[in-house]
Specification:
Layout: H1 4-17, H2 37-42, H3 46-65, H4 67-70, H5 79-99, H6 103-123, H7 126-131, H8 136-161, H9 171-174, H10 179-200, E1 213-217, E2 231-232, E3 235-239, E4 245-250, E5 259-260, E6 275-279, E7 284-289, E8 297-303
Parallel strand pairs: 1-4, 3-8
Antiparallel strand pairs: 1-2, 4-6, 5-7, 7-8
Helix pairs in contact: 3-5, 3-8, 5-6, 6-8, 8-10
């Protein structure tokens, strides 16, 4: 019996020493100098840091972007605003879970990043906003949040796939001197370049010195049954060389766009108080709508100068 005890202890110690945590590190006990809770905290893979800060940054970025709309937030606010607030909450909670190396953190990170990317693509507002930086606040959100969340989504999926085998065992996730580091640097360079271009870009495409015709996106326009309508006036007639320039101003506490049905023009996202100007150069009838609220429609009739 005494001879078997050392063998049993040796077997137990061997199994204990070979236990691997989710990062791919051996865990021996909380008092060890090389392993345990303290070491796990200080040796998180580079990808985990990027995902955590990427989610937190995206949440703060969007919060900054919708700050003007939140100033009049109420139970009757645009449902889209509720969706954005939900994203901000999920992103913050997901960042905390990701940093804590929790399974639900990985799941929330994937849901937040992929959900936002799919939503932005479905609404078709990201590219128009980048191409028409009418409001620098809106532009900078579009310029940064989608690329950052693409980075978060890629790294988070790779972490989920390699979670059981150990994330620290994969150099492209564990070290900044790898694929994840290069990808992060490329995204940062793109963001910096885009921010610079946005800051230097003109705020209007107007080419006419004639006072523009004003169209208001009225308060409550997000509501299909809004008593005051949506675009006011919803139909205008212009004459080339006389008054062929139009300025739309968003007076609603919700995000809107001015989007041509034919794809001729698109304002991108307009926050409360933002304006966008367009000059029509050819006669015709131009129908437009809000890409976020398709029931919001208007018509511009352009006549040739007689």
């Amino acid at each position: 019996m005494r001879q078997k005890l050392p063998q049993i202890r040796a077997i137990k110690n061997s199994k204990y020493d070979n236990n691997m945590d989710m990062l791919g590190q051996k865990t021996r006990g909380q008092g060890s100098e090389t392993t345990g809770t303290k070491n796990v905290t200080s040796s998180r893979p580079f990808a985990i840091w990027v995902i955590t800060f990427g989610l937190a940054f995206s949440a703060l970025d969007l919060l900054y972007g919708i700050s003007s709309d939140l100033s009049k937030f109420s139970s009757s606010s645009d449902p889209l605003l509720y969706v954005m607030i939900l994203f901000i909450i999920v992103a913050f909670v997901g960042a905390a879970g990701e940093f804590s190396l929790k399974t639900w953190g990985y799941i929330l990170a994937a849901l937040a990043s992929l959900g936002f990317i799919i939503g932005a693509n479905a609404l078709n507002v990201w590219i128009p906003t980048l191409s028409n930086p009418q409001d620098f606040n809106t532009f900078i959100v579009a310029d940064t949040i989608v690329p950052v969340l693409i980075l978060v989504a890629i790294l988070d999926v790779l972490c989920i796939v390699n979670r059981k085998s150990g994330i620290n065992q994969k150099r492209y996730l564990a070290s900044p001197k790898s694929f994840s580091g290069i990808l992060t640097v490329l995204i940062l360079v793109l963001l910096s370049t885009g921010a610079g271009i946005g800051a230097l870009s003109p705020s209007s495409n107007a080419k006419s010195a004639v006072a523009p015709v004003a169209i208001s996106i009225v308060s409550g326009a997000f509501n299909p049954s809004n008593a005051a309508g949506h675009f006011s006036p919803s139909s205008v007639t212009l004459v080339i060389g006389v008054n062929n320039t139009v300025t739309w101003t968003n007076n609603d506490y919700s995000i809107h766009t001015v989007t041509s049905n034919s794809g001729l023009f698109d304002s991108g996202l307009l926050n409360h108080g933002n304006s966008w100007t367009y000059t029509f150069t050819s006669p015709g009838i131009y129908s437009y709508h809000c890409s976020i609220h398709p029931f919001m429609t208007g018509t511009i009739t352009v006549l040739a100068k007689s």
